[in-house]
Amino acid sequence: MLTIILVTVGVILVTIGLVKLVDKFIPAKFKPILNILLWVLIAFLGYQTYMSIYEPIQFNKIKNKRYLQVIESLKDIRDSQLAHKQVTGKFARDFESLIKFVDTAEFTITQRRDSSVIDEEMTKRYGVDTFKDIVIIDTLGYVSVKDSLFKNSDSYKNMMNVPVGEPGAKFKMEAGVIEQSKLFIPVFEASVKKNVILYDQNKDLLVQENQVVSVDGVNGDALKVGSLEEVNTTGNWPKTYGANE
Fold first, then answer.
1. I want to staple 197 with a disulfide (CB 3.0 to 4.6 A). Which of 28, 64, 153, 165 is the partner?
2. Domain that holds residue 12
3. How far is the C-alpha of 236 from the C-alpha of 229, rounded, in Å?
């Protein structure tokens, strides 16, 4: 971008120089027409220079605003999926079952306490009362997943919808298991392409955004949370956009 600006400014300076040369060497009868054409060219190049600075600034403002909204939705999806795994032991494979879960499921409220009981085997072996420590888990009650995660809001019913960008767009969500140390561990991933979020923005700037590799940017061509390739429930956005885990 800096190269384009420098080239454009250079062309403007050269054009201004041409205006002065025209004024000095071109016959008087041709000067008005040539001067008008050259000043039109200067105005056009000046506009192009201005837009080359203004458009990226506006693009970044719109991008950051939309990313924040999308990230909030991805956090809701993650919270719902983590609750699903806590209660069922696995992640939901589609939004229909995830929404139904949030609507109907309950967390079990428990309390752990230490206690001790007679160790019958050791008591029999040594002929004296021998105790062993145990942990008792008491069930205190139940609380609605919906109330815990969303209070009085029904926003979870639309969690599959991308809140900004291309009209009618949906998040992509998958779930499965991966093998790690001979264990099969549940995983999930929810994502949306940057092309969907920024579908109506400058295409050249969007191409650049899809190629971002930066510590303070969203790397890759999508915003996502979770992973199907590793045990990971974090988001791929930097913490400048808020907590990603």
1. 165
2. 2-55
3. 14
Number of domains in the chain: 2
Residues 195-218 pLDDT 10s:
999 999 999 999 999 998 888 899
- Which pLDDT does position 16 carry in this prediction? 66
Select the more confidently predicted residue: 133 or 88.
Answer: 88
Q: Do residues 17 and 68 both lie within one domain?
A: no
d(CA 32, CA 143): 83
- Among 12, 28, 55, residue at a domain's last position: 55
Which of the pair, 11 or 159, is modelled with greater confidence? 159
Residues 17, 95, single domain; the answer is no
Question: How many Å is the Cα radius of gyration of the chain?
Answer: 31
Residues 75 and 187 in one domain: yes
Same domain, 98 and 184: yes
Give the per-residue pLDDT at 73: 96
